[in-house]
Design a protein that fits this description.
The protein is of the alpha/beta class and 370 residues long. It has one domain: Aldolase class I (TIM Barrel). The chain has ten helices and 14 strands.
Length: 370
C-alpha cells in the first residue's frame, strides 16, 4: 500500500454536498466525487469524498472527576487494564494513520493525564512526525506535568472548565476545585503550551448565564474560549434538546457587548469543529462548536481510536472496528492502515442527532474520547 504525504491532493472532481438538520442550519461543503469501491491507496477518504486528516487518540476511559455532561456520579466501571492498548500499540496505529496522510493528533480520555507515564506516550507519538500534537485535559494534573509534556513534544492543550464560579464548578464536576484548573492554564502557558484553549460545555439553567463572563475571561487572558453545545453523550443519559444552548444565541449575546467578526480564511480551518470569531477591537478570540444546531458533518475530517482499540468514524457512531486484536497478533502497518480505510469508508453522511430515528451511542463520552 502506498503512503500518502500530508496535504495530498483531494480527488479532482467535486460535487456539492450539504449536511445538517432538516430545514438547514448545517455547514455546506463541496465534496469530491469518489468511486463507490473503497480505494486502497491515495487520500484517506470516505464515500462522500471527505478526506480525513485528524486522529483523536483516547488513551484511557478513567477520569478523576464525574462531570455531569460525561460520567454518572456513582457506579462507574472502568475497563480492565489488559483491555487497554499499550503505548506501543497506540503508536503502531498512529504510525499507520500517518502513512495515510493523517496530519493532526489529539490525545484524549477519560482524563489522559491520569494514565501513568503519559509523557512517554507523547514522546512516541511526537517521534512519528505529525504536524500538530495536542491534548485535551480537565486540568487537574496539568500544572505538574506541563514541563514534561512540552519536553516530550506536545504542542498545545485544551483545558475543560465549565464555570468560573467555584461552587458551581464543583457542582458541575462533582469533584475537584476551580483554582487548580485556572492555575494549570498559567502553568501550561509558562511551559510553552500556547495558545491555551478553554472548553466550556453549556447547559441551559446550569451555566448559560456565564457566557459573557467567559468572553471577558478570553479578552483578559488571551486564551481562546470555545463554547460547546451539550451533546447526548452524558453518562446519566439526562440530555434533552431543551438543555442545549444554541451557538447562535451565544454569539449574539457576546456580539451585543463586544462586537465579533468571523476569523477569515486562510486562518480558519473549514474542517475544524469550532467556528472561530475574533473581537473587532483585537482583544482575543472565541469559538463555538455547534454540533447540535449547526452540524459540521459535511466538513468532518476526524477519526477516533478508543482506549480499548476500537476505530470510530464518528463521535456518534454505533458501529466500531476493533484494531486491537490485529495489532496484538502482529499485524503489519499496511494491514492496520487497511482497517483504518475500512472504518473511514463506512462513515455515514452525518451524525443524525436531528433525525427522529437517532439512537445515542451505547458508550458515553469518557468511553469514546473527546
Amino acid at each position: 500500500m502506498s503512503a500518502v504525504s500530508p496535504g495530498a491532493a483531494r480527488p479532482p472532481v467535486a460535487v456539492p454536498v450539504t449536511f445538517g438538520p432538516p430545514g438547514g442550519g448545517g455547514r455546506s461543503t463541496t465534496a469530491p466525487a469518489v468511486a463507490r469501491e473503497m480505494p486502497v491507496d491515495g487520500p484517506l477518504v470516505d464515500v462522500y469524498g471527505r478526506v480525513h486528516r485528524d486522529l483523536r487518540l483516547s488513551i484511557t476511559d478513567r477520569c478523576n472527576l464525574r462531570c455531569v455532561h460525561c460520567l454518572p456520579e456513582h457506579g462507574v466501571t472502568f475497563l480492565p487494564r489488559q483491555e487497554l492498548l499499550s503505548f506501543e500499540e497506540i503508536a503502531r496505529v498512529a504510525e499507520a494513520a500517518r502513512s495515510l496522510g493523517i496530519e493532526s493528533v489529539r490525545i484524549t480520555g477519560g482524563e489522559p493525564l491520569v494514565r501513568r507515564g503519559v509523557a512517554e506516550l507523547v514522546r512516541q507519538i511526537a517521534a512519528i512526525g505529525f504536524e500538530d500534537l495536542s491534548l485535551t485535559t480537565n486540568g487537574t494534573e496539568l500544572a505538574r506535568l506541563a514541563p514534561d509534556l512540552v519536553a516530550a513534544g506536545l504542542h498545545r492543550v485544551n483545558v475543560s472548565c465549565d464555570s468560573l464560579l467555584p461552587e458551581r464548578f464543583a457542582a458541575i464536576r462533582r469533584r475537584g476545585e476551580l483554582e487548580p484548573v485556572l492555575a494549570s492554564m498559567d502553568a501550561a502557558e509558562e511551559a510553552g503550551l500556547s495558545p491555551v484553549k478553554v472548553n466550556v460545555v453549556l447547559s441551559a439553567g446550569s451555566n448559560d448565564d456565564e457566557v459573557e463572563a467567559f468572553a471577558a475571561f478570553a479578552r483578559a487572558t488571551g486564551r481562546i474560549v470555545r463554547f460547546i453545545e451539550f451533546m447526548p453523550l452524558d453518562g446519566d443519559e439526562a440530555w434533552s434538546r431543551e438543555l442545549v444552548v444554541p451557538a447562535e444565541e451565544v454569539l449574539a449575546r457576546i456580539d451585543a457587548r463586544w462586537p465579533l467578526e468571523a476569523v477569515p480564511a486562510p486562518d480558519a480551518d473549514p474542517a475544524a469543529p469550532a467556528e472561530r470569531y475574533r473581537f473587532v477591537d483585537g482583544k482575543g478570540e472565541i469559538g463555538v462548536i455547534a454540533s447540535v444546531t449547526r452540524p459540521f458533518c459535511g466538513t468532518c475530517d476526524r477519526l477516533r481510536l478508543t482506549a480499548d482499540g476500537s476505530l470510530r468514524n464518528c463521535l456518534f457512531a454505533n458501529e466500531e472496528l476493533s484494531v486491537r486484536d490485529l495489532v496484538r497478533r502482529g499485524g503489519t502497518t499496511e494491514e492496520i492502515a487497511l482497517m483504518i480505510r475500512r472504518s473511514v469508508w463506512a462513515k455515514l453522511p452525518g451524525h443524525g442527532i436531528n433525525d427522529p430515528s437517532f439512537l445515542r451511542p451505547a458508550r458515553s463520552m469518557s468511553m469514546i474520547g473527546g
